[in-house]
Amino acid sequence: MIRFGGFCLAVGALAFLAVFSYLAANFNYPDVLDGPAATVLPSLLGTGTTGRVVWTIYAFLPLIWIPAGVAAFEAFGAERRGVMRLAMFCTIVASVAMVLGLMRWPSIHWHLAQAYVQAAPAEQAVIAATFDGLNTYLGNFIGEFLGEMAFSTFFILTSLCWLRELPRRRWMGWFGVGTGVAGLIGMFRNVTSVVAPIAALNNYLLPAFMIFLGSALIRWRPSPTGVSQ
């Protein structure tokens, strides 16, 4: 289970990068998130069936946090049971929140886009208001804020256990703590532009740490006391 969770974490990070790159090239993601309905909805529809499939894959990718959380709990839970139980619950919250946030694109937003291009101006105004409301609630608050807060907390808790139990590889623990703290700061990017540089930096730290942590769990060799060798 530890190795499977590590595999999900490492491969999931690469999948996130692949999907993100596709959407950036074909949908101007993530800058498009700040655009008005009149621009975003026709662009979404213009990505066609391929775009909808990519968004669907993207929406389900956060499920990898669940096996990752279980893997981290199995690795450190014997010595730090309370902390790692909380960390595992954080991955469940992160997974559900991010799936809900991303799933709006191939589902609700897709149907809004179809209706928008055929609607009269008065109807388009209503659709635009619905679009903006869903982005704020499902996107900013649920997917980004709650989801990122949850997995950043998971990183910090797991990394603190790493520092306590595996002092010979402390750099890995500090890397995780730094990534988690950057994530907690960067999630306020929708509130203030002051944290924008940290949020941009975290876009690189996040997949890198996911791959490092995933690789470490794949190579996990438990000792008789439950701590990796």
Characterization of the model:
By secondary structure, the chain is mostly helical. It has one domain. The protein contains nine helices and no strands. It starts with a helix and ends in an 11-residue tail after the last helix. The C terminus is likely disordered. The longest helix is centred in the middle third of the chain and has 45 residues.
Give descriptors for this structure.
disordered C terminus; 229 residues; 9 helices; mainly alpha
Low-confidence stretches: 225-229
Count of structural domains: 1
Mean pLDDT: 91
Reported for the largest beta sheet, the result is:
none
> Secondary-structure element order, as H and E?
HHHHHHHHH
Helix content: over 70%
Secondary structure category: mainly alpha
What portion of residues belong to β-strands? under 5%
Termini separation (Å)?
A: 17 Å
Oligomer: single chain
Overall number of strands: 0
Summarize the structure.
This protein has helices at 2-27, 37-46, 48-60, 65-76, 81-103, 108-116, 121-165, 170-186, 196-218. By secondary structure, the protein is mainly α.
Give me the secondary-structure topology.
Layout: H1 2-27, H2 37-46, H3 48-60, H4 65-76, H5 81-103, H6 108-116, H7 121-165, H8 170-186, H9 196-218
